[in-house]
Write a structure and sequence with these properties.
817 residues; disordered N terminus; mainly beta
Length: 817
C-alpha cells in the first residue's frame, strides 16, 4: 500500500503520494458526532477533510514498502516483554508460569471477569496461558502463548477491536476477554486512550479504535472513520509501536521512526507538522531499537540501539524529562548516564530502568507516583528522580500509580490507591503509597475444595468442611464468626479489624461434630450430631436463646437434645424439635415469634401453637417467617406491609401462622417478598415487586403482589432463595438462575447494573452442577461439588475470597491464609 498523508505544517497543507484509493474506504457510523476533532488549530483545507477518508494507495495487502517501494523484508518482531501493565486505575501482570493476575478498579470489565474491584491480585482467564499484557486508559489486551490476541474493558469507539458497534454506554463494556481477529498471530501491542495498535508476527502493523485525530494512520480522519477492528497501517515491516492519547509512532525494520495523528504539542516529533493522517518520518535520530511501553499521553520516548532515551511532545508535567515544562517538538536526549533497558510512559509520568537495575521516574508526582517518599508541592519533577534499589527489571504506569518488578520476581506498587490499584490489600484515599509497597498474594491460599455445605448471612458466611469442622468469614464485630478473636482497630488500612476475608475455624474446634450452619444478619447457629443447638454472635434481643451480651464462641441453646432444624432472621430465631414442634425466640417485633402477641422479646425458646407436624421453618431478615407442615401446607406470619405473607392483603402484622392455599415443597422469605416451590416443581413469588424480585414480568416500581403468582411456566425448580431485592433458584439438573435488582452484581451476570434489574430469571453462567444456593441481602453463594462460589455485595468480605469489593461473577471461596 502506498501512503497518502494529509500533513499540516506552519500554515500549509500538503497532500502526499496520491496514487489511488484503498479498498477500505467505507465510513463506520459509530453514532457519534463528527466535526473538527483534531485537537489543534487547522487551516480550512484540513477542516474540510474531517469525517472524510483521504487515504489512497494500492490494496492494503500490497507487499511494497510505503517508503521505498521495495518489497517488505522478512522480519520477526521482538516478542513483547510486557510482564506488567497498568490502566487508569487497574494493574495486571503475567507471571513466569503464564498466569495473568489483575487488581484495582474493574469498572466496565477492566479486570476481565466482571469483577468490580480487587485490592490484591487474582487470576484472570485461568484457562489460557499468557505471554504479555498491555493496558490503555480503560481497556486492556493480552497476547496468549499461542500468539492470539484478546481484549476486554471499555470498548467505546472500537478500541477493543471486536468489530462490535456500540450504541450506548451500557454496551461499551466487555466484561470478559474476547479474541480479536481469530487466526492471526501477534508480537507486540500498545494501547492508547481511545485506540489500540499491534504488530503481527509477520511484521505488519495494525490499529483500531478512535480515528478522530487520524491516530489510526490509514489516511482517514474523523469519527465516521473509527475502526471497529484492526486495519493495516502502511506496507512496510515494523518492529515496535506506541499508541498515545491522539497520536501514534512506530519503528520500521531499519530503526527509523514514523509518527502520525495530532502533533500540535510536538507529539509527531517533526517541527512544524501539527497533523498527519498517515506516517511521517522523524529525522535526526540514530537508529532506534524500541519505543516506550504504555501510552494514553501526548508525549513519546524511544531508546536508541545503545540504550539512550529520547523524548518529545507535550511536557506540561515535565514528562519529557529534559528539565523544562516547554513543549518538545523534536526528539531530545534524556541524560541518565547509563544504558537504559526499558522505558514506560503513562499519561503524565514516565519511568525508565537501567541495565544495572536502577530505576528513575519523572513528571507528575501529585500522588506519590515518583516513588521516593515525597508528594511534590509543585506536583511534578521535570528531571528524573531515582528510586531506592538496584534490582528493578520492569515497570508500568497507570493514571496516578506505578507498579514495578524486582529481580526476585516480587511486584511492588506505589501512588494513588483509591481503588486498590497498589494491590497491597488496602484501598482508599488515606492509603496511597509514596514508596513501593509489595503487592499482596491473592486469597491468602489456594481454593478451598472440601466444602460439605455453606450459608451466607447479612455480612458474613459460614461453611462446614468434609471433616465436619466449622469455618466462618466476613464481618466479625458482633462475634458472628465464632472464633473468639478480639477485635483489632477497624480502618481501611486494617480491614481485618472489622472483617476476616478468608475462612477461619470456629472455636472451640473440638466442641463436637457440626451439622450445616444457618446464618442470620449478624448471628449464627448450627446443630451438632447429638441433637444439641449452638448459637453465637449478636444478642441484643436474646436471639442466641439466652439473655446477655454478644457471644464470640458457640453457646448451647438450653439443654434439649432433639433439635432437628433452625432458621435465623435479623434479631429472631426459630427452630424445630422432634417430632415436629416449632419454637421461636428473640425479638417479637411484628409478631415474628408466632405466639399471637406483638412486641417485646423472648430470651428463651417458646413454643408456637400446639402442632407437632412442622417439617420446615424459614425466617426472613425483615420480620416475617414461613413454615411447612407434613401435609405440604404452607403457613406464614409476621410483618405484612408489602403483602409478603401471601394472604391477598397488606396491612397489620399477622402474629400467628396463617395458611396459604396450595401444596408446597419449600419456601424462602426475603426482605419484603417471599418465594416458594410447589409440589409440582413450579415456582411462585409474592410481596414487593418493584425491583423485579418477584420475577413475574414488568411491573411498576411500587408494585405489590399480595398472593402467590407463578414465575414462568417451568416445572423443574428444586430450590429458591430470596434476598433483599433479588431472588435466585436452582432448576434440574443443576442450573442457577437469578432475578431482581443487580446493583451489587447479585444476578451473577458479570456486571453491576447490567442489566440494572431483571423481571424474569436469568441463568448464572452455563454450569449445570450447582447443588445448593444461599442468599441474604445482596449477596449469593452457591456450591458446585465441594467448591463454594459467591457473588454480589462484598463490603464485609462475606464472599470469603480475600477482597471487600463486590463481584458480578461467581468467585471461589479461598482457604484461610
Amino acid at each position: 500500500m502506498a501512503w497518502t498523508s494529509w500533513v499540516q505544517g506552519a500554515g500549509t497543507v500538503l497532500l502526499l503520494g496520491v496514487t489511488g484509493c484503498p479498498d477500505d474506504t467505507t465510513p463506520v457510523d459509530t453514532e457519534q458526532s463528527s466535526g473538527d476533532t483534531t485537537g489543534s488549530s487547522t487551516t480550512s483545507s484540513v477542516d474540510s477533510t474531517l469525517g472524510a477518508d483521504v487515504s489512497s494507495g494500492d490494496d492494503s495487502s500490497s507487499s511494497d514498502d510505503g517508503t521505498t517501494g521495495e518489497p517488505i523484508p522478512e522480519i520477526d518482531p521482538i516478542p513483547d516483554p510486557a510482564g506488567l501493565s497498568a490502566s487508569a486505575f487497574t494493574s495486571c501482570r503475567v507471571d513466569d508460569d503464564g498466569a495473568m493476575t489483575c487488581w484495582g478498579d474493574g469498572g466496565c470489565g477492566l479486570l476481565g471477569d466482571g469483577y468490580s474491584r480487587a485490592r490484591a491480585p487474582f487470576v484472570t482467564a485461568s484457562e489460557q496461558s499468557w505471554a504479555s499484557v498491555s493496558g490503555g486508559f480503560e481497556h486492556s489486551c493480552a497476547i496468549a502463548d499461542d500468539r492470539s490476541l484478546w481484549c476486554w474493558g471499555n470498548g467505546s469507539n472500537g478500541k477493543v477491536g471486536d468489530a462490535m458497534l456500540d450504541d450506548g454506554p451500557l454496551n461499551w463494556c466487555r466484561f470478559e476477554l474476547t479474541e480479536i481477529a481469530p487466526g492471526t498471530q501477534w508480537a507486540r501491542l500498545s494501547l492508547g486512550r481511545d485506540h489500540s495498535c499491534g504488530i503481527q508476527t509477520d511484521g505488519t502493523l495494525w490499529c483500531w479504535g478512535s480515528n478522530e485525530s487520524a491516530q489510526i494512520g490509514d489516511g482517514a480522519v474523523g469519527p465516521l472513520y473509527n475502526r471497529l477492528e484492526p486495519v493495516e497501517v502502511g506496507g512496510t515491516a515494523w518492529i515496535d509501536v506506541y499508541a498515545g492519547e491522539d497520536h501514534t509512532c512506530a519503528i520500521d525494520g531499519a530503526g527509523t521512526l514514523w509518527c502520525w495523528g495530532i502533533g500540535s504539542s510536538g507529539q509527531l516529533g517533526v517541527e512544524g507538522v501539527q497533523f498527519s493522517s498517515s506516517p511521517v518520518e522523524v529525522s535526526g535520530l540514530p537508529p532506534l531499537r524500541e519505543l516506550a511501553r504504555g501510552g494514553t499521553g501526548s508525549s513519546t520516548c524511544a531508546l536508541t540501539m545503545d540504550g539512550t532515551p529520547w523524548c518529545w511532545g507535550e511536557n506540561e508535567s515535565g514528562v519529557a524529562g529534559v528539565g523544562s515544562q516547554e513543549e518538545i517538538f523534536a526528539p531530545t536526549e534524556v541524560d541518565l548516564g547509563t544504558p537504559i533497558a526499558g522505558i514506560f510512559m503513562g499519561s503524565r509520568t514516565a519511568c525508565a530502568w537501567a541495565e544495572d537495575g536502577r530505576l528513575w521516574c519523572w513528571g507528575q508526582g501529585s500522588s506519590g507516583q515518583l516513588g521516593d517518599g515525597v508528594v511534590l508541592p509543585g506536583n511534578f519533577s521535570a528531571t528524573p528522580v531515582q528510586l531506592a534499589g538496584e534490582d528493578w527489571v520492569d515497570v508500568a504506569l497507570g493514571l496516578l500509580h506505578v507498579c514495578g518488578r524486582r529481580a526476585d520476581g516480587q511486584t511492588q506498587c506505589w501512588g494513588d490507591n483509591d481503588n486498590g490499584q497498589v494491590g497491597d490489600g488496602t484501598s482508599g484515599p488515606d492509603n496511597g503509597r509514596t514508596t513501593p509497597a509489595p503487592v499482596g498474594p491473592w486469597g491468602g491460599g489456594p481454593v478451598a475444595d472440601d466444602w460439605a455445605s455453606a450459608r451466607v448471612g447479612g455480612s458474613h458466611g459460614c461453611g462446614r468442611r468434609l471433616d465436619d469442622s466449622m469455618w466462618c468469614w466476613g464481618n466479625r464485630i458482633r462475634g458472628q464468626l465464632g472464633n473468639d478473636d478480639p477485635l483489632d482497630d477497624c480502618s481501611p488500612a486494617n480491614p481485618s479489624g472489622c472483617s476476616i476475608t478468608t475462612p477461619v475455624a470456629v472455636s472451640p474446634a473440638g466442641v463436637g461434630t457440626w451439622g450445616d450452619p444457618v446464618l442470620g444478619t449478624r448471628h449464627t447457629c448450627a446443630l451438632q450430631d447429638d441433637g444439641t443447638l449452638w448459637c453465637w454472635g449478636h444478642n441484643d434481643q436474646s436471639q442466641l436463646g439466652y439473655p446477655g451480651d454478644d457471644g464470640a464462641v458457640p453457646t448451647q441453646v438450653g439443654t434439649a437434645t432433639d433439635w432437628t432444624a433452625v432458621s435465623l432472621g435479623d434479631r429472631s430465631t426459630c427452630g424445630l424439635r422432634s417430632p415436629g414442634i416449632l419454637w421461636c425466640w428473640g425479638s417479637n417485633a411484628d409478631g415474628l415469634l408466632g405466639t399471637g402477641l406483638v412486641g417485646g422479646n423472648e430470651p428463651m425458646p417458646v413454643q408456637v401453637g400446639l402442632e407437632s407436624d412442622w417439617v420446615a421453618v424459614a425466617v426472613g431478615p425483615f420480620r416475617h417467617a414461613c413454615g411447612l407442615r407434613s401435609d405440604q401446607s404452607l403457613w406464614c406470619w409476621g410483618r405484612n406491609d408489602f403483602g409478603q405473607l401471601g394472604l391477598g392483603s397488606t396491612g397489620e402484622p399477622e402474629p400467628m401462622p396463617a395458611q396459604i392455599p396450595g401444596t408446597w415443597a419449600s419456601v424462602s422469605p426475603g426482605s419484603r417478598h417471599t418465594c416458594a416451590i410447589a409440589m409440582d416443581g413450579t415456582l411462585w413469588c409474592w410481596g414487593f415487586a418493584g425491583s423485579g424480585q418477584v420475577g413475574v414480568g414488568p411491573v411498576a416500581e411500587d408494585a405489590i403482589i399480595t398472593s402467590p403468582t407463578q414465575v414462568g411456566t417451568d416445572t423443574d425448580w428444586v430450590q429458591v432463595v430470596a434476598g433483599s431485592s433479588s431472588s435466585c433458584g436452582r432448576r434440574s439438573p443443576g442450573t442457577a438462575w437469578c432475578w431482581g435488582a443487580n446493583d451489587d452484581g447479585q444476578l451473577g451476570q458479570g456486571a453491576w447494573d447490567e442489566p440494572p434489574t431483571a423481571d424474569a430469571p436469568l441463568q448464572v453462567g452455563i454450569d449445570d452442577d450447582w447443588v445448593d444456593l444461599s442468599a441474604m441481602g445482596s449477596v449469593v453463594c452457591g456450591q458446585r461439588g465441594t467448591t463454594l462460589w459467591c457473588w454480589g455485595e462484598n463490603s464485609s468480605g462475606v464472599q470469603g475470597n480475600d477482597t471487600i469489593f463486590s463481584s458480578g461473577t461467581p468467585r471461589e471461596v479461598r482457604n484461610d491464609g
